[in-house]
Amino acid sequence: MPLWKRVVLTPRIFGALSSPDRVSILRCLEEHQMTGTEVAARLSMSKSTAFKELSRLEEAALVARVEGNRKWVYYRLTETAFRILHPEDVIVALSPELDAPGRPTERFPGLPRGHVEGA
Fold first, then answer.
1. End-to-end CA distance of the chain
2. Which of 36, 74, 92, 98 could form a disulfide with 66 if both were Cys (CB 3.0 to 4.6 A apart)?
3. How far is residue 46 from each of residues 40, 77, 102, measured CA to CA in Å?
4. pTM
5. What are 75's strand-pairing partners?
6. How far is the C-alpha of 63 from the C-alpha of 85, rounded, in Å?
7. Tens digit of pLDDT for each residue in 58-101?
8. How many angstroms separate the CA atoms of 68 and 51, rounded?
């Protein structure tokens, strides 16, 4: 029997996933972590577009920055993004309350934005 993991999809995550460019970036980062410049070259998009879209994905907690001891900043998928791209053994929960300005979050106390249970 599989161990089910849960992904809570927030409005911010839905917004990030609404762009084909951002979904392409997630698929690109599935292979391995990359710099923004590498993502731009791989997907034939401008660097400014790649960095803008990576920023939006980072705000939605779908990618994370990996800052090493070098001057380069790499981006990698978060566990939430990986589970969204590979939904086997995942239970998806929709949460309109999370991330919505002025809306209460008492129904989900202590649950951070884009939270993944069982990580």
1. 18
2. 74
3. 6, 21, 36
4. 0.73
5. 34, 65
6. 12
7. 999 999 999 877 788 999 999 999 888 888 777 777 776 554 44
8. 18
